[in-house]
Amino acid sequence: MSDSPARILVVDDEPSITEFVSYNLKKEGYNVSVAEDGDTALKLAAAEPFDLVVLDVMLPGIDGYEVCRRLRATSSVPVLFLSARDTELDKVVGLEIGGDDYLAKPFGVRELSARVKALLRRVTPGVRETGVAGERFTVAGITLDEGEHRADATDGPIDLTPREFELLAILMRHAGKVLSRETLLRDAWGWEYLVETKTVDTHVKRLRDKLEAAGVDPALVETVRGYGYRFKAV
User: Fold this and answer.
1) Contact (Cβ atoms closer than 8 angstroms) between residue 225 and residue 181
2) CA distance linking residue 8 with residue 54, whole number of Å
3) CB burial class (10 A; 0-12, 13-18, 19+) of residue 208?
């Protein structure tokens, strides 16, 4: 695992928020860059790789949701949304367009730190958020290395966001078994995300697209009507 600090991009048009977030993240040893609008954020993200983007929803010009959509076109970097709007619909929208977590304003230092660490653990080699560090297994031609946070098919790596990786890992660990949408929400998103189950459907569709792009049969993730999904153990 690299000893260099994680690189975090903080995007918010409120100076008080960017100062608060960047100050506390720097205190924890992270390398922090700041953008005050979506256009600047996208330019910075295109110029250098980041390990995490902390992204406000309400931005001047293009909003945070659109920034996330554009990031997802080329990057699987984890996105932590910040928003003063704490409705279920806002959370669902953020998750469905590719966000990995959602933190409502106002928030405290400890909650911010916990969310950031949880997301970085999913993309930092050698560390898993739960279970045994470095577990590696193969099912139906896909090799999943949870320690390296890497999924490989016969034709090469599968480019997944942290949430897509968690979803695939859960399905593969239980290959051959039907998992309900509620179970997938609980295990891949956490109890705080027991929201509309269509969020799972959206991410499964995105996961299938990623599998197909990597030369893997997307039908490996099978829909079980009225219940949930199953990863075929072939």
Assistant:
1) no
2) 7
3) middle
Both tokens assigned to 213: 């792009």
Cβ neighbour number for residue 61 with a 10 Å cutoff: 11
Q: Return d(Cα 43, Cα 125) in angstroms, integer.
A: 27
pLDDT tens-place values along the chain, 234 residues long: 456 889 999 999 999 999 999 999 999 999 999 999 999 999 999 999 999 999 999 999 999 999 999 998 888 888 999 988 766 667 777 777 888 888 888 889 998 998 898 888 766 544 333 333 457 888 888 999 887 788 999 888 998 887 888 899 999 999 999 999 888 877 877 645 545 567 788 889 989 999 999 999 999 999 998 889 999 977
For the chain, which residues make up each domain, given as ranges? 7-123, 136-231
CA distance 96 to 79: 12
Distance CA 206, CA 99 (A): 13
For residue 58, what are its two tokens? 């309400």
| Spatial distance between the Cα atoms of 202 and 215, rounded to a whole number of angstroms | 20
Strand, helix or coil for residue 65 = helix
7-123 and 136-231: same fold?
Answer: no
List CB contacts of 46: < 8 A, sequence separation 6 or more.
74
- Both structure tokens of 144: 């999943």
CATH number of 7-123: 3.40.50.2300
Other C-beta atoms closer than 10 Å to the C-beta of 58 total 15
Q: Which of 58, 15, 108, 162 is nearest to 170 (CA)?
A: 162
Residue 9, helix vs strand vs coil? strand
